[in-house]
Design a protein that fits this description.
Shape of chain B: elongated
Radius of gyration of chain A: 19 Å
Low-confidence stretches of chain A: none
Order of helices and strands of chain B: HEEHEEHEEHEHHHHHEEEHEHEHEHE
Number of helices of chain B: 13
Strand order of the largest sheet of chain B: 1-5-6-11-10-9-7-8
Strand content of chain A: 25-35%
Structural class of chain A: alpha/beta
Strand order of the largest sheet of chain A: 2-3-1-4-11-5
CATH class of one domain in chain B: Alpha Beta
Oligomer: heterodimer
Distance between the termini of chain A: 27 Å
Number of strands of chain B: 14
Distance between the termini of chain B: 64 Å
CATH architecture of the largest domain in chain A: 3-Layer(aba) Sandwich
Mean pLDDT of chain A: 92
Strand content of chain B: 15-25%
Largest interface: A-B, 20 and 23 residues
Chain lengths: 207, 386
């Protein structure tokens, strides 16, 4: 059996995906001591987990330092990395939407959009034939309309509570998001048996 | 804009240091010997071409082209690939002299980077083109040459994945309702987005037989051992027969174990009209090379004789092939100025013995100790010798 390196996002997605692997019959320890570790070796299954920031998972996989990985559809759409998207794990489901102050229209001249996802936002507004200016922010996106920085925001929505608490309403639902199993193009060929095995076993758990 | 520092180079441009240079040169030499031994003739084409001819035909994304303007106002491009210029060269001149042509190249190609580093914007490619032979034997020759070339470089662990643009089109058109749907699925396959493919199939509202067939196809066709497995999706046609023959020839050449078939393989290079393939090797995260039949590109240049070929990334070969110690011994002769003649004579003798000899005046050295460290052997020619 060949070694397999899996890049995983830290936190909740890791726990859910890890449980899915256990359910799929992989011999993994029930309790895994996470704390500050960035690498976890599972010699019994010849698997090594790399723990990364969610946005970095597609980068690791594209460069082949991880064979496969688990990444949110939002990061895949934003980063447009050259990776194979193999399976929808249907965990951490949410969606990307545009939002703004209630009953407002976008400014006619150069409407401004604040977002963590400049590429996703730009692609979306281009698609609907709207020329906008993107303002990239790293957090607290909801602030932007209130303080007059932007007409709309484009952000992840899971329950909609954050929007409500900040007095914003959702305008357009842009795309659904969930965690995906992705693979490096070379690993996909060179380790095809192992990767296919994981896909088949996880697919049974998903459905 | 930040000011450009003195040491900076344009994004994606790389210097070649001595060790890499020698390794590249060794790759060139053995590659040239190998390909010339198989009847391929080496050619080169200019770095600059017209945007309207080669630039547009190359099928490289427009944003990746380096463009400039000549004194007449024509847009030029730094060649983004070699297949297109060689097609221009062949159709305009060489095909009149010999057909089929077997051409080979080692050349730098240029593709601008929009993302961050990690990818070069100028890199060397090597490859072959067989122009003017439409038979399956030409395609087989290309694949077999690719496999044996990779083997010749001492690479053990690699895989060639073969698909067929015609068969894929056939399947996509048969199981969808219109052109738009087929194109949508094709572009998802180019991105290798299998999840998106399944979602799109569900969203099309196709008759159950069609959607089931597509879903089964996407699960099965990416990794199949023999052509028979794909036959249930397509009615018997020439392309299928062609692929069977191709598989058979590769089998006769005893190279089947390096080959697998993937009928979902699709390329944004829309001039690939028939079989196409990708080469993967352990040691690099990126594909080593790719190739295929590009009769469409020949047609674009006004010829219908057909062509097939492959290209391999030399920069990725460099990553994969282990460093080899050079056989030649490096010798430094450090001389005092008065003894120059003696040192010169000694250097000539040592060079005829096949050593790499550096002749260095002792007065010219700032740090002698650091200098002599990099040589296998150090000889001194000083007055005390007398």
């Amino acid at each position: 059996m060949t070694e397999l390196t899996i890049a995983m996002p830290k936190g909740r997605i890791f726990e859910e995906a890890y449980q899915m692997l256990i359910d799929a019959g992989f011999n993994l320890p029930e309790e895994v001591e996470m704390s500050r570790k960035l690498m976890i070796e599972i010699p019994e299954e010849k698997i090594r987990f790399i723990l990364a920031k969610p946005m970095d998972v597609p980068v690791y996989v594209e460069h082949g330092v991880a064979d496969i990985g688990i990444a949110g559809k939002d990061t895949l759409l934003e980063l447009k990395r050259n990776v194979h998207e193999l399976l929808d794990l249907k965990i951490s489901q949410c969606y990307i939407a545009s939002a703004g102050l209630p009953n407002t229209k976008m400014n006619e001249i150069a409407p401004r959009i604040a977002t963590k996802y400049p590429n996703v936002a730009m692609d979306y507004y281009k698609e609907i034939g709207e020329q906008v200016e993107i303002i990239e922010l790293n957090g607290s996106i909801e602030l932007a309309p209130m303080i007059g920085l932007a007409d709309r925001i484009v952000d992840i929505v899971s329950t909609g509570r954050t929007l409500k608490e900040n007095g914003l309403v959702e305008y357009e639902r842009i795309t659904d998001v969930s965690s995906r199993l992705i693979a490096n193009p070379v690993s996909y060929r060179m380790k095809s048996a192992r990767i296919q095995d994981i896909v088949t076993r996880l697919k049974k758990i998903v459905n | 804009m930040t000011t450009i520092k003195k040491f900076e180079k344009p994004i994606g441009m790389r210097d070649t240091f001595p060790v890499t240079f020698e390794k590249t040169e060794a790759i060139r030499n053995s590659g040239r010997t190998f390909l010339r031994g198989r009847g391929f003739e080496f050619v080169n084409t200019p770095s600059l071409e017209y945007y309207d001819t080669v630039g547009k035909a190359s099928a490289i994304y427009d944003a990746s082209l380096f463009k400039l303007v000549d004194s007449q106002g024509n847009t030029l491009v730094l060649r983004p690939d070699m297949t297109t210029p060689i097609t221009r060269l062949a159709t305009s001149k060489l095909l009149k002299e010999k057909i089929p042509l077997r051409l080979a190249y080692f050349a730098n190609v240029f593709r601008a980077q929009q993302l961050e580093g990690g990818r070069p914007a100028e890199f060397e490619q090597m490859g072959i083109e067989v122009i003017g032979d439409k038979t399956v034997y030409a395609d087989a020759e290309v694949i077999i040459t690719a496999i044996q070339l990779v083997q010749d470089y001492g690479i053990q662990s690699f895989k060639v994945t073969i698909g067929h643009a015609g068969i894929l089109n056939c399947i996509l058109n048969d199981y969808t309702e219109n052109e738009t749907q087929a194109n949508k699925l094709r572009s998802l396959l180019i991105e290798r987005n299998y999840v998106g493919f399944e979602e799109a199939v569900h969203s099309f509202d196709l008759p159950k037989t069609k959607s089931d067939a597509l879903l089964q196809f996407i699960n099965e066709a990416a990794n199949i051992e023999s052509i028979e497995q794909i036959e249930k999706y397509v009615s018997k046609n020439e392309s299928l027969l062609y692929m069977r023959q191709l598989a058979e020839i590769i089998n006769l050449a005893n190279l089947s174990k390096y080959v697998s078939f993937d009928f979902t393989l699709s390329s944004h290079m829309n001039y690939y009209t028939g079989m196409l393939f990708e080469i993967f090797a352990e040691g690099s995260g990126f594909p080593l090379g790719n190739g295929g039949r590009y009769d469409g590109l020949l047609h674009h240049f006004g010829s219908d004789v057909g062509a097939t070929g492959f290209g391999i990334r030399v920069d990725r070969l460099l990553e994969i092939i282990p460093n080899q110690k050079t056989e030649e011994k490096t010798v430094a002769i450090i001389f005092e100025d008065e003894e120059f003649i003696k040192a010169l004579d000694l250097s000539i003798t040592l060079r005829t013995e096949g050593n790499h000899v550096t002749l260095q005046s002792r007065n010219g050295l700032v740090n002698e100790e650091a200098f002599i460290k990099v040589f296998d052997e150090v000889l001194y020619v000083t007055q005390e010798d007398k």
